[in-house]
Write a structure and sequence with these properties.
Layout lengths: L1 E10 L5 E9 L3 E11 L5 E8 L1 E2 L1 H16 L2 E5 L3 E5 L9 H4 L16 E5 L17 E6 L13 E2 L5 E3 L2 E8 L6 E9 L13 E7 L4 E3 L5 E3 L2 E8 L5 E9 L4 E10 L9 E3 L5 E5 L2 E5 L15 E3 L8 E4 L2 E5 L8 E7 L8 E5 L11 E7 L4 E6 L2 E6 L13 E2 L5 E5 L4 E10 L2 E11 L5 E11 L3 E11 L3
Length: 480
Protein backbone atom coordinates (compact mmCIF):
# COMPACT_ATOMS: atom_id res chain seq x y z
CA UNK A 1 0.00 0.00 0.00
CA UNK A 2 1.06 3.58 -0.67
CA UNK A 3 0.61 6.80 1.25
CA UNK A 4 0.98 10.40 0.11
CA UNK A 5 3.87 12.63 1.21
CA UNK A 6 3.97 16.35 0.45
CA UNK A 7 7.23 17.92 -0.82
CA UNK A 8 7.47 21.73 -0.75
CA UNK A 9 9.77 24.54 -1.80
CA UNK A 10 9.43 28.23 -0.99
CA UNK A 11 11.74 31.04 -2.05
CA UNK A 12 11.21 34.08 0.19
CA UNK A 13 12.90 36.48 -2.27
CA UNK A 14 11.15 35.58 -5.52
CA UNK A 15 7.89 34.31 -4.04
CA UNK A 16 8.30 30.98 -5.84
CA UNK A 17 6.26 28.26 -4.17
CA UNK A 18 6.20 24.62 -5.27
CA UNK A 19 4.21 21.76 -3.83
CA UNK A 20 4.22 18.21 -5.18
CA UNK A 21 2.84 14.94 -3.87
CA UNK A 22 5.10 11.90 -3.60
CA UNK A 23 3.75 8.40 -3.16
CA UNK A 24 5.58 6.45 -0.49
CA UNK A 25 5.16 2.85 0.73
CA UNK A 26 3.79 2.18 4.18
CA UNK A 27 6.99 1.37 6.06
CA UNK A 28 8.14 1.57 9.66
CA UNK A 29 10.97 4.01 8.82
CA UNK A 30 10.58 7.47 7.22
CA UNK A 31 13.24 10.07 6.45
CA UNK A 32 12.61 13.78 5.74
CA UNK A 33 15.08 16.45 4.59
CA UNK A 34 14.60 20.13 5.33
CA UNK A 35 17.00 22.41 3.43
CA UNK A 36 17.30 26.08 4.37
CA UNK A 37 19.36 28.75 2.58
CA UNK A 38 20.28 31.94 4.45
CA UNK A 39 21.65 35.30 3.35
CA UNK A 40 25.18 35.30 4.78
CA UNK A 41 25.10 39.04 5.54
CA UNK A 42 21.65 39.45 7.10
CA UNK A 43 21.08 35.93 8.40
CA UNK A 44 17.59 35.93 6.89
CA UNK A 45 16.21 32.74 5.37
CA UNK A 46 15.86 33.04 1.59
CA UNK A 47 14.69 29.52 0.66
CA UNK A 48 13.25 26.46 2.36
CA UNK A 49 12.70 22.99 0.90
CA UNK A 50 11.10 20.04 2.68
CA UNK A 51 10.85 16.59 1.09
CA UNK A 52 10.74 12.92 2.12
CA UNK A 53 13.35 10.51 0.81
CA UNK A 54 12.91 6.84 -0.02
CA UNK A 55 14.75 4.24 2.05
CA UNK A 56 16.74 2.02 -0.31
CA UNK A 57 16.51 -1.77 -0.53
CA UNK A 58 20.04 -1.94 0.88
CA UNK A 59 18.72 -0.81 4.26
CA UNK A 60 15.96 -3.40 4.14
CA UNK A 61 18.58 -6.11 3.56
CA UNK A 62 20.66 -4.83 6.47
CA UNK A 63 17.59 -4.67 8.72
CA UNK A 64 16.81 -8.29 7.87
CA UNK A 65 20.36 -9.33 8.71
CA UNK A 66 20.22 -7.36 11.97
CA UNK A 67 17.05 -9.23 12.93
CA UNK A 68 18.77 -12.56 12.24
CA UNK A 69 21.74 -11.55 14.33
CA UNK A 70 19.45 -10.49 17.16
CA UNK A 71 18.11 -14.04 17.32
CA UNK A 72 21.32 -15.93 16.54
CA UNK A 73 23.99 -13.99 18.41
CA UNK A 74 25.15 -15.62 21.64
CA UNK A 75 26.50 -12.46 23.28
CA UNK A 76 28.20 -9.16 22.53
CA UNK A 77 31.09 -7.48 24.27
CA UNK A 78 32.95 -4.18 24.14
CA UNK A 79 36.32 -4.29 22.46
CA UNK A 80 39.22 -1.84 22.38
CA UNK A 81 38.95 0.88 19.76
CA UNK A 82 35.27 1.59 20.49
CA UNK A 83 34.13 -1.58 18.75
CA UNK A 84 31.47 -4.12 19.65
CA UNK A 85 32.25 -7.78 19.09
CA UNK A 86 29.48 -10.25 18.30
CA UNK A 87 29.78 -13.89 19.29
CA UNK A 88 27.65 -16.55 17.74
CA UNK A 89 26.87 -17.47 14.11
CA UNK A 90 30.26 -16.91 12.51
CA UNK A 91 31.96 -19.19 15.01
CA UNK A 92 30.01 -22.26 13.93
CA UNK A 93 28.84 -21.75 10.38
CA UNK A 94 27.77 -25.34 9.91
CA UNK A 95 24.87 -24.77 12.31
CA UNK A 96 23.55 -21.98 10.12
CA UNK A 97 24.08 -23.28 6.59
CA UNK A 98 20.54 -22.36 5.62
CA UNK A 99 21.45 -18.72 6.24
CA UNK A 100 25.14 -18.28 5.55
CA UNK A 101 25.29 -20.57 2.52
CA UNK A 102 22.16 -19.07 1.00
CA UNK A 103 23.29 -17.55 -2.32
CA UNK A 104 20.44 -15.04 -2.15
CA UNK A 105 22.05 -13.36 0.88
CA UNK A 106 25.38 -11.52 0.95
CA UNK A 107 26.84 -11.05 4.43
CA UNK A 108 28.93 -7.93 4.86
CA UNK A 109 32.01 -7.86 7.08
CA UNK A 110 34.39 -4.91 7.53
CA UNK A 111 32.57 -2.46 5.27
CA UNK A 112 31.22 1.07 5.75
CA UNK A 113 27.44 1.22 6.12
CA UNK A 114 25.17 3.38 3.94
CA UNK A 115 24.13 6.09 6.42
CA UNK A 116 27.62 7.61 6.85
CA UNK A 117 27.74 10.56 4.46
CA UNK A 118 25.02 12.88 3.27
CA UNK A 119 25.80 13.80 -0.35
CA UNK A 120 24.28 16.41 -2.68
CA UNK A 121 24.36 15.74 -6.46
CA UNK A 122 22.73 17.12 -9.61
CA UNK A 123 21.13 13.79 -10.64
CA UNK A 124 17.49 14.52 -11.50
CA UNK A 125 16.20 11.09 -12.56
CA UNK A 126 12.90 9.94 -11.03
CA UNK A 127 12.98 8.08 -7.74
CA UNK A 128 13.02 4.30 -8.18
CA UNK A 129 12.67 2.85 -4.65
CA UNK A 130 12.28 -0.77 -5.76
CA UNK A 131 15.52 -0.89 -7.74
CA UNK A 132 17.70 2.18 -7.15
CA UNK A 133 20.84 1.55 -5.10
CA UNK A 134 23.65 3.54 -6.80
CA UNK A 135 24.65 7.19 -6.33
CA UNK A 136 24.65 9.20 -9.55
CA UNK A 137 25.41 12.74 -10.68
CA UNK A 138 28.08 15.40 -10.19
CA UNK A 139 28.80 15.97 -6.53
CA UNK A 140 28.03 19.45 -5.20
CA UNK A 141 28.45 18.92 -1.47
CA UNK A 142 28.71 16.42 1.36
CA UNK A 143 29.00 16.11 5.13
CA UNK A 144 30.04 13.32 7.49
CA UNK A 145 27.62 12.10 10.10
CA UNK A 146 30.08 11.13 12.84
CA UNK A 147 32.47 14.06 13.26
CA UNK A 148 32.57 17.82 12.86
CA UNK A 149 34.62 19.61 10.20
CA UNK A 150 36.13 23.06 9.83
CA UNK A 151 38.37 23.61 6.82
CA UNK A 152 38.76 24.80 3.25
CA UNK A 153 37.10 21.88 1.40
CA UNK A 154 34.80 23.52 -1.17
CA UNK A 155 32.24 20.73 -0.88
CA UNK A 156 32.28 19.66 2.75
CA UNK A 157 29.96 20.81 5.49
CA UNK A 158 29.79 19.71 9.12
CA UNK A 159 27.37 18.05 11.45
CA UNK A 160 25.96 20.43 14.05
CA UNK A 161 26.23 18.38 17.25
CA UNK A 162 24.56 21.06 19.39
CA UNK A 163 21.34 20.86 17.38
CA UNK A 164 21.36 17.12 16.66
CA UNK A 165 19.86 14.45 18.89
CA UNK A 166 18.87 10.79 18.91
CA UNK A 167 15.81 9.32 20.59
CA UNK A 168 14.44 5.79 20.48
CA UNK A 169 11.99 6.60 17.66
CA UNK A 170 13.45 9.80 16.22
CA UNK A 171 16.91 10.64 14.84
CA UNK A 172 17.41 14.37 14.25
CA UNK A 173 20.63 15.30 12.43
CA UNK A 174 21.58 18.87 11.47
CA UNK A 175 24.33 19.78 8.99
CA UNK A 176 25.73 23.22 8.13
CA UNK A 177 27.66 24.50 5.09
CA UNK A 178 29.57 27.82 5.11
CA UNK A 179 29.63 30.29 2.23
CA UNK A 180 32.62 28.67 0.47
CA UNK A 181 31.26 25.10 0.42
CA UNK A 182 28.59 23.24 -1.63
CA UNK A 183 28.10 26.09 -4.09
CA UNK A 184 26.17 25.00 -7.16
CA UNK A 185 22.83 23.45 -8.07
CA UNK A 186 21.72 20.08 -6.72
CA UNK A 187 18.62 17.97 -7.27
CA UNK A 188 19.22 14.90 -5.12
CA UNK A 189 20.23 14.21 -1.53
CA UNK A 190 21.79 10.79 -0.85
CA UNK A 191 22.92 8.79 2.14
CA UNK A 192 26.01 6.82 1.07
CA UNK A 193 28.89 4.91 2.72
CA UNK A 194 31.45 7.37 1.31
CA UNK A 195 31.32 10.94 0.09
CA UNK A 196 32.42 10.29 -3.50
CA UNK A 197 32.47 6.53 -4.12
CA UNK A 198 29.98 3.74 -4.74
CA UNK A 199 30.39 0.16 -3.56
CA UNK A 200 29.62 -2.97 -5.56
CA UNK A 201 28.94 -5.65 -2.97
CA UNK A 202 25.68 -7.09 -4.27
CA UNK A 203 23.76 -7.07 -1.00
CA UNK A 204 20.46 -6.32 -2.74
CA UNK A 205 20.62 -8.80 -5.57
CA UNK A 206 23.35 -11.23 -6.60
CA UNK A 207 23.22 -14.08 -9.08
CA UNK A 208 25.83 -16.86 -9.20
CA UNK A 209 26.31 -18.66 -12.52
CA UNK A 210 28.71 -21.24 -13.94
CA UNK A 211 29.60 -21.28 -17.63
CA UNK A 212 31.16 -24.04 -19.73
CA UNK A 213 33.38 -23.15 -22.65
CA UNK A 214 32.39 -24.68 -25.99
CA UNK A 215 33.90 -28.11 -26.51
CA UNK A 216 37.65 -27.86 -27.14
CA UNK A 217 37.99 -24.28 -25.85
CA UNK A 218 39.15 -22.55 -22.67
CA UNK A 219 38.59 -19.15 -21.07
CA UNK A 220 41.22 -16.47 -20.41
CA UNK A 221 41.15 -13.76 -17.75
CA UNK A 222 40.59 -10.87 -20.16
CA UNK A 223 37.79 -8.38 -19.42
CA UNK A 224 34.56 -9.56 -21.11
CA UNK A 225 32.36 -7.37 -23.31
CA UNK A 226 28.58 -6.97 -23.09
CA UNK A 227 26.97 -5.99 -26.40
CA UNK A 228 23.52 -6.31 -27.95
CA UNK A 229 22.19 -8.98 -25.62
CA UNK A 230 25.43 -10.99 -25.70
CA UNK A 231 28.48 -11.35 -23.50
CA UNK A 232 31.82 -12.12 -25.11
CA UNK A 233 34.89 -13.73 -23.52
CA UNK A 234 38.40 -14.07 -24.86
CA UNK A 235 39.30 -17.75 -25.04
CA UNK A 236 41.65 -20.24 -26.68
CA UNK A 237 41.39 -23.33 -28.83
CA UNK A 238 42.88 -26.23 -26.87
CA UNK A 239 44.19 -27.99 -29.96
CA UNK A 240 46.29 -25.26 -31.57
CA UNK A 241 46.24 -22.53 -28.86
CA UNK A 242 44.71 -19.99 -31.24
CA UNK A 243 42.81 -17.10 -29.70
CA UNK A 244 39.01 -17.25 -29.89
CA UNK A 245 36.06 -15.05 -29.06
CA UNK A 246 33.39 -16.96 -27.14
CA UNK A 247 29.81 -15.69 -27.32
CA UNK A 248 26.92 -16.28 -24.89
CA UNK A 249 23.35 -15.04 -24.77
CA UNK A 250 22.94 -12.59 -21.88
CA UNK A 251 19.49 -11.58 -20.68
CA UNK A 252 20.24 -8.76 -18.26
CA UNK A 253 16.61 -8.52 -17.09
CA UNK A 254 16.43 -12.17 -15.99
CA UNK A 255 20.17 -12.28 -15.09
CA UNK A 256 20.76 -15.38 -17.20
CA UNK A 257 23.70 -16.35 -19.43
CA UNK A 258 23.68 -19.38 -21.71
CA UNK A 259 23.95 -20.96 -25.15
CA UNK A 260 27.73 -20.64 -25.46
CA UNK A 261 29.36 -20.87 -28.88
CA UNK A 262 32.46 -19.77 -30.77
CA UNK A 263 31.95 -16.35 -32.31
CA UNK A 264 35.32 -16.38 -34.07
CA UNK A 265 38.51 -18.46 -34.08
CA UNK A 266 41.36 -16.06 -34.79
CA UNK A 267 44.27 -17.09 -36.93
CA UNK A 268 46.83 -16.13 -34.24
CA UNK A 269 48.36 -17.58 -31.07
CA UNK A 270 49.43 -14.23 -29.59
CA UNK A 271 48.57 -13.58 -25.94
CA UNK A 272 46.08 -10.82 -26.67
CA UNK A 273 44.98 -8.47 -23.87
CA UNK A 274 41.98 -6.30 -24.80
CA UNK A 275 39.34 -6.92 -27.44
CA UNK A 276 36.18 -5.32 -28.73
CA UNK A 277 33.70 -5.96 -31.53
CA UNK A 278 32.84 -3.34 -34.14
CA UNK A 279 29.27 -2.69 -35.36
CA UNK A 280 30.05 -4.66 -38.56
CA UNK A 281 31.12 -7.70 -36.52
CA UNK A 282 34.90 -7.33 -36.95
CA UNK A 283 37.12 -8.08 -33.96
CA UNK A 284 39.71 -5.56 -32.82
CA UNK A 285 42.24 -6.89 -30.34
CA UNK A 286 45.47 -5.68 -28.73
CA UNK A 287 48.87 -7.17 -28.02
CA UNK A 288 51.12 -4.71 -26.21
CA UNK A 289 50.65 -1.40 -28.01
CA UNK A 290 49.77 -3.06 -31.32
CA UNK A 291 46.20 -3.29 -32.61
CA UNK A 292 45.02 -6.19 -34.82
CA UNK A 293 41.82 -6.69 -36.80
CA UNK A 294 40.10 -9.98 -37.73
CA UNK A 295 36.84 -10.76 -39.46
CA UNK A 296 34.31 -13.27 -38.07
CA UNK A 297 36.02 -16.04 -40.01
CA UNK A 298 39.17 -15.35 -38.01
CA UNK A 299 41.12 -14.01 -40.98
CA UNK A 300 43.32 -10.91 -40.55
CA UNK A 301 41.75 -7.74 -41.90
CA UNK A 302 43.20 -4.36 -42.81
CA UNK A 303 43.22 -1.72 -40.05
CA UNK A 304 41.13 1.21 -41.38
CA UNK A 305 43.37 4.04 -42.55
CA UNK A 306 46.28 1.68 -43.26
CA UNK A 307 47.19 -1.07 -45.69
CA UNK A 308 48.25 -3.39 -42.84
CA UNK A 309 46.42 -5.95 -40.69
CA UNK A 310 48.09 -4.55 -37.57
CA UNK A 311 49.20 -1.12 -36.40
CA UNK A 312 51.68 -0.24 -33.69
CA UNK A 313 50.83 2.82 -31.58
CA UNK A 314 54.43 3.52 -30.58
CA UNK A 315 54.93 4.29 -26.89
CA UNK A 316 51.18 4.30 -26.12
CA UNK A 317 50.46 2.56 -22.81
CA UNK A 318 47.23 1.28 -24.43
CA UNK A 319 45.52 0.28 -21.18
CA UNK A 320 42.22 1.56 -22.57
CA UNK A 321 40.53 0.51 -25.81
CA UNK A 322 36.83 0.63 -26.63
CA UNK A 323 34.52 0.88 -29.62
CA UNK A 324 31.47 3.09 -29.10
CA UNK A 325 29.32 3.17 -32.20
CA UNK A 326 31.46 4.74 -34.91
CA UNK A 327 34.04 6.03 -32.42
CA UNK A 328 37.15 4.24 -31.16
CA UNK A 329 38.90 5.28 -27.93
CA UNK A 330 42.58 4.46 -27.29
CA UNK A 331 44.70 5.46 -24.31
CA UNK A 332 47.56 7.53 -25.75
CA UNK A 333 49.44 8.27 -22.54
CA UNK A 334 53.15 7.50 -23.04
CA UNK A 335 54.34 7.59 -19.42
CA UNK A 336 52.91 6.49 -16.09
CA UNK A 337 53.74 9.95 -14.72
CA UNK A 338 51.50 11.70 -17.28
CA UNK A 339 47.87 12.68 -16.88
CA UNK A 340 45.41 10.33 -18.55
CA UNK A 341 45.21 10.96 -22.32
CA UNK A 342 42.70 9.36 -24.68
CA UNK A 343 42.58 9.63 -28.48
CA UNK A 344 39.22 9.39 -30.22
CA UNK A 345 39.24 7.99 -33.76
CA UNK A 346 36.66 7.27 -36.40
CA UNK A 347 36.10 3.55 -36.92
CA UNK A 348 36.99 4.27 -40.57
CA UNK A 349 40.38 5.84 -39.78
CA UNK A 350 42.46 4.53 -36.89
CA UNK A 351 45.49 6.61 -37.79
CA UNK A 352 44.37 10.23 -37.48
CA UNK A 353 42.55 11.02 -34.21
CA UNK A 354 39.43 13.16 -34.29
CA UNK A 355 40.51 14.68 -30.99
CA UNK A 356 42.86 14.12 -28.07
CA UNK A 357 41.37 14.43 -24.59
CA UNK A 358 43.56 15.00 -21.53
CA UNK A 359 41.92 14.18 -18.21
CA UNK A 360 43.68 15.92 -15.30
CA UNK A 361 44.93 14.02 -12.27
CA UNK A 362 42.48 15.89 -10.04
CA UNK A 363 39.68 14.18 -11.97
CA UNK A 364 41.04 10.67 -12.61
CA UNK A 365 44.33 10.00 -10.87
CA UNK A 366 46.43 7.56 -12.92
CA UNK A 367 49.83 8.60 -11.61
CA UNK A 368 52.14 5.56 -11.61
CA UNK A 369 49.10 3.37 -12.30
CA UNK A 370 48.13 1.33 -15.35
CA UNK A 371 44.58 1.53 -16.63
CA UNK A 372 42.81 -1.79 -16.99
CA UNK A 373 39.97 -1.40 -19.42
CA UNK A 374 37.26 0.71 -20.99
CA UNK A 375 33.66 -0.27 -21.76
CA UNK A 376 30.71 1.31 -23.59
CA UNK A 377 27.14 1.34 -22.27
CA UNK A 378 25.01 2.33 -25.27
CA UNK A 379 21.71 2.66 -23.39
CA UNK A 380 23.09 5.70 -21.54
CA UNK A 381 25.84 6.77 -23.97
CA UNK A 382 28.34 6.25 -21.17
CA UNK A 383 31.86 4.83 -21.21
CA UNK A 384 33.69 3.40 -18.21
CA UNK A 385 37.36 3.77 -17.37
CA UNK A 386 38.88 1.28 -14.90
CA UNK A 387 41.95 2.21 -12.89
CA UNK A 388 42.96 -0.30 -10.23
CA UNK A 389 39.89 -1.07 -8.11
CA UNK A 390 38.04 2.08 -9.22
CA UNK A 391 35.76 2.44 -12.22
CA UNK A 392 34.76 5.88 -13.50
CA UNK A 393 31.57 6.41 -15.51
CA UNK A 394 31.91 9.19 -18.08
CA UNK A 395 29.71 10.85 -20.66
CA UNK A 396 30.83 9.43 -24.01
CA UNK A 397 30.88 12.77 -25.79
CA UNK A 398 32.79 14.82 -23.22
CA UNK A 399 34.66 12.11 -21.27
CA UNK A 400 33.51 13.99 -18.19
CA UNK A 401 31.06 13.35 -15.39
CA UNK A 402 27.43 14.28 -16.03
CA UNK A 403 24.27 14.31 -13.96
CA UNK A 404 23.49 10.83 -15.36
CA UNK A 405 26.78 9.12 -14.54
CA UNK A 406 27.31 7.15 -11.33
CA UNK A 407 30.13 8.46 -9.18
CA UNK A 408 33.40 6.51 -8.98
CA UNK A 409 32.65 2.90 -8.05
CA UNK A 410 34.79 0.28 -6.33
CA UNK A 411 34.71 -2.93 -8.35
CA UNK A 412 36.95 -5.66 -9.68
CA UNK A 413 39.14 -4.17 -12.42
CA UNK A 414 38.63 -7.25 -14.58
CA UNK A 415 34.84 -7.14 -14.46
CA UNK A 416 32.48 -6.18 -17.24
CA UNK A 417 29.56 -3.80 -16.68
CA UNK A 418 26.02 -4.22 -18.00
CA UNK A 419 23.02 -1.92 -17.72
CA UNK A 420 19.44 -3.02 -17.12
CA UNK A 421 17.25 -0.31 -18.73
CA UNK A 422 14.05 -1.77 -17.28
CA UNK A 423 15.15 -1.47 -13.65
CA UNK A 424 17.74 1.23 -14.36
CA UNK A 425 20.43 -0.79 -12.59
CA UNK A 426 24.15 -1.16 -13.26
CA UNK A 427 25.38 -4.76 -13.10
CA UNK A 428 28.95 -5.78 -12.37
CA UNK A 429 29.87 -9.03 -14.16
CA UNK A 430 32.65 -10.71 -12.20
CA UNK A 431 34.30 -13.85 -13.54
CA UNK A 432 36.92 -16.29 -12.31
CA UNK A 433 38.39 -19.69 -13.09
CA UNK A 434 36.77 -22.74 -11.49
CA UNK A 435 39.33 -24.55 -9.29
CA UNK A 436 42.10 -24.65 -11.88
CA UNK A 437 39.75 -25.71 -14.68
CA UNK A 438 39.89 -23.03 -17.37
CA UNK A 439 37.14 -24.74 -19.38
CA UNK A 440 34.66 -23.42 -16.80
CA UNK A 441 33.94 -19.95 -15.46
CA UNK A 442 32.30 -18.74 -12.28
CA UNK A 443 30.27 -15.63 -13.06
CA UNK A 444 28.77 -13.39 -10.40
CA UNK A 445 26.23 -10.70 -11.32
CA UNK A 446 26.19 -7.90 -8.74
CA UNK A 447 23.76 -4.99 -8.68
CA UNK A 448 26.14 -2.06 -8.15
CA UNK A 449 25.66 0.52 -5.41
CA UNK A 450 25.03 0.68 -1.67
CA UNK A 451 23.05 3.84 -0.95
CA UNK A 452 20.95 4.09 2.17
CA UNK A 453 18.42 6.58 0.83
CA UNK A 454 17.78 9.18 -1.87
CA UNK A 455 15.58 12.24 -2.06
CA UNK A 456 14.66 13.82 -5.40
CA UNK A 457 13.84 17.39 -4.40
CA UNK A 458 10.67 19.07 -5.74
CA UNK A 459 12.86 21.63 -7.52
CA UNK A 460 16.62 22.20 -7.90
CA UNK A 461 18.33 24.06 -5.06
CA UNK A 462 21.05 26.56 -5.92
CA UNK A 463 23.51 27.75 -3.28
CA UNK A 464 26.02 30.54 -3.95
CA UNK A 465 28.88 32.08 -2.02
CA UNK A 466 26.42 34.61 -0.59
CA UNK A 467 24.55 31.83 1.23
CA UNK A 468 25.03 29.59 4.18
CA UNK A 469 22.98 26.39 4.22
CA UNK A 470 21.43 24.18 6.86
CA UNK A 471 20.16 20.67 6.12
CA UNK A 472 18.11 18.84 8.73
CA UNK A 473 17.42 15.13 8.48
CA UNK A 474 14.62 13.62 10.55
CA UNK A 475 14.38 9.84 10.63
CA UNK A 476 11.19 8.52 12.23
CA UNK A 477 11.13 4.91 13.41
CA UNK A 478 7.74 3.47 14.29
CA UNK A 479 7.56 1.29 17.40
CA UNK A 480 7.32 -2.47 16.93
Amino acid sequence: MLRQSKATKRNFLTGEAIEIIKEKPLKSVRGVHTIELFDALTGKMVERVKSENFIAKTMEALQRQAALFAFLTERISYSSGSRIEYYGPFYDLSRYDIIFNNPEMIWLINVNFPMNWIVLTDYDGPENPENEVIMRGRIVGYAYRYSTYSGSDTKRGTINLAESFIESQHIHLVFDWPTHAANGTFNSVYWNPENSTNYSNGIVETKFLRLDAPQGYTFTNAKPRVKNGKIYFLGRNQQDNKAAILEYDFNVQTRTIGNGRVYALLNSTLNFAIFDIAPNGDIYITYGNTLYCFDQNGSPKTIPGTSQTSRSYTNFLFGLFAIAGQDVYIESRTSLSNDLQINRYSINDLVNPLDVIVIPRSFIDVYNTYCNGMLFLPDLNIVTVSVGSSTYFLDRGTLDFSKETPVRTYMNGNSAVAYDPTRRQFIEVRHSEVSGDNTKRNVTLHVMGFIGARNLLPSPVTKTSTNTMKLTYDLYIDSY
